[in-house]
Amino acid sequence: MPDEQSLKKTPLHLTHVASGARMVEFGGWDMPVQYPDGILSEVRSVRNNAGMFDVSHMARFQFVGPEAVAFLDRMLAADVAGLRQGRARYHVICNEQGGIIDDAIVYRVTEDQCLLVVNAGNVDAVKEFLIPAAQQNGGVFFADLSDDVAMIAVQGPNAVEIVDRLCPLPASSIRPFRLRRGEVAGIPSRIARTGYTGEDGFEIMPPADRATDLWRALEAEGVVAAGLGARDVLRLEAGLMLHGNDMMVENNPYEAGLERFTYIETPGYIAGEALKAIRDAGTPRVITGFRMVGRGIPRHGLAVINDGKEVGVVTSGTHSPTLDDNIGMGYVDRDLSNEGTRFEIDIRGRLVEAEVVPLPFYSRKRS
Length: 367
What we know:
The chain is α+β, with helices and mostly antiparallel strands. The protein has helices at residues 13-18, 39-48, 68-75, 123-135, 159-166, 211-220, 228-237, 272-281; strands at 22-26, 29-34, 51-54, 59-64, 87-94, 100-110, 113-118, 141-144, 152-155, 179-184, 187-192, 201-205, 224-225, 285-292, 303-306, 309-320, 325-333, 342-347, 350-356. The mean pLDDT is 97.
C-alpha cells in the first residue's frame, strides 16, 4: 500500500481534512471515506435531501479530431457515432478477448470531440489500451484533463432544485445522460446529469482551482458532504457495480449482466468477435442480487454454497440502511439465479441462508 506522502490528492483534499473527514487510500488517492456524522447519516442525507461527493479522482480524458468518434467506436462498446451532441452513454471497455478493462461514461461533446470518464483504479489500464492506438491515428488527439478539471457529484431527491438555485441555465433543463456547459455559483463548468447512487442529480466539472468555491457554495445550500463509504452503500442499494469488486478484466459483460450496455455491432469493433462468441455460447455463471434470510452480512470474497458445494462467490455486500436489510451480489451458477432461489453464504464457517431478489434492491419511485 502506498504511504500517505505518495498518494495523489484531489483539489478538494485540504477541504476534506479541514472538515474532519477520515481519509483512506483508494486507487492511489487520499480520499474521504466518511465525515464526522458518519456513513449512515450521509446515506440518509442523499436518500432524503442531497449529498455531494468529491469524484475528482476519476479520470477525464478528451479525444478530439476528425477521426475521434470513429476511433472510439472501434475501441468502446458504446456506439459513439450514434450519440447526438451533448449526450452520454454508460458502457464497458473490453479488451480483444472480451474482458472488462473498465466501465465508463462517454460524452459526445461536439461533432468531433468526446469526453471519457473512467475509474481511478483503472486509469493506467485504460491509457495502455487506448493511447497507443490513438497515437497511430493521425486524426485523433488525446488530452488528459484530470489535473485541470475537478468533478463533484450532487445527488439526492432535492439535488436538482438546489443546483437550479445556483445555475441560471437552469440545470433542470438538462435531461438524464446529457451534458451542458453553464455556470454553477458563478463558476463556468460542464454539468452532466449522471450519477452513481440511484438518485437524480449531477456530476459537475469546474476548473480545478474553483472546486473549493463550488463545494462551499453547495454546502451553503444545505448539501451534505459524503465520502466513499456512503457512496459504496448507495451504489449497491441501487444495484450498480464496482469494477474491481463486481467485475474485473477476467469477467465479460454477459456474465456481469451488462449486455444492454454493450454495443458490439460497429464494424471493426476491437472486441466484437470475441463478445459475439461469448454471447452465443452463454456463460455458466451470472451476477445475481440476493438478500440475507439469516443473520449476517455478506462480504466480498465469501463463498456461495448450495447442497454443500461451492457454486459462486460474493462480490459486494452490506447492511442497507434504506431497506433495513442485509444485501449482496455475486456470481452464481446460472440455474441458481432465478428470483426466489435460495442458497447459503459461508460467513466465517457459518452457513447463512440467502434468497435471490431482483436488481436493483432500491429505486426511487418517480412522481
